[in-house]
Amino acid sequence: MKKIFFITAILLMSVKSFSQGSADYGSGMKFNLNEDGSKYMRFIVWNQIWFRSGEMNPGTMIGNEATTTGTDIGNRRLRFLAYSQLSKRYMIVTHFGINNQTFTNGGAAGTTGTGGYGAGKKPGLFFHDAWNEYALVLPEKDKKFSLSLGGGLHYYMGLSRSTMASTLNFLTIDAPIFNWPLIENSDQFARQMGLFAKGKFGKLEYRLSYNKPYATNLVPANAITADEAVAVDNSGNTKWSKAGYFEYQFLDQESNLLPYKVGSYLGTKKVFNIGAGFYTAPDGTRSSVNNTISKHNINLFAADVFLDLPLGNKTNKMAVTAYSVFYDYDFGPNYLRNVGIMNIGTADPGFTGSRALAGAGNAQPSIGSGNIWYTQAGVLLPSAAEKPKVRVQPFGAFTYKSFDALDKSSTQFDLGTNFFLDGQHAKITAQYSTRPIYTTPSTTSGSKGEFILQLQIYL
């Protein structure tokens, strides 16, 4: 922990310049293909590097050694995105990269042990997005209505604003993960292959998609009674899913050129939106009772509200950002997924105490049939200087989870601060997070904490 705070101090002392929107960045790496700029290509690249120190769940090993704590540095996201419009109607989007590389895992398939392809080394690049899009009704032709159609591997997954969040401008250090309820099961890193429609009607923005979920084949454990049945991801001959999100934008209108929703505008816009969405997939999970298999539909619903406004005197450049979302998830009876981001822990076979129900490392109950309420808020502190060296944005987040598979609900929080060196283009984020520790469905043994320091740069 002392090392991490030392690194933070060094980085902050090295700051020499700041601008709210990054005057150096401008329009970014954009290459016009004609004189008026209506034909162009744009590239966006970003790295998010994490330094971490945290408490491990009971019954954890790291590198075959029992431990209660862990520290590391890892690559949370290394990405490259390119999109191009050869006319106002046609657009192509390609997005690839890697995620979650640590010193023990996240490497290429089959990497293990020691050597050139040892544990955690040489992760394989893969596509996050790849779609083609056609603007059927251009917004400038009809100011009240626009419509674009597209298809491919896409991010128009409906449900909530944060289900389609940009990873470049989070308010907190990262998404809470349950905003991507299918993550790496029936989707490819929060994406599915399918068709989508997007557009606006006045102040209403809409997104709809029709998708073919990736096949899943987990085998359900056999239960004696229906109350004990546990649904798992098993879609068989996968049926098409449907998703949608509708958002009314009361104040400034947000761009919908790309699907990625902004997490914090830093007061550069006046935004107040209310939204609601859904995701449904027939026969997406299965359970077994007395060796009789039952299929279950996946039905997910959400409603949210987003606020981002300047505060007080304009010369102070102060702003508030807030977001709250409620999820109602139904994956089938007692469905529960435990997730640990960049989890470096493994199960200790020699542990004799009460193990964490979620497993080893930093895993926690993250996604399941039940309800989740999540709220975050932050304030961009005032600055009298015309070109301040650094802008500071403290934030906090609160999560309430009530899953059918667990007898007790849980609460947890995140507290942190963004240090903007050059707007969202270069920032350092420090965050402390808690997670509940269940030892049985009805028993908790307090919580564990994790400190994360992130250095983000995107161009």
From TrEMBL:
Residues 1-23 form the signal peptide. The keyword Signal applies. Keywords: Signal. It comes from the Bacteria. This is Porin.
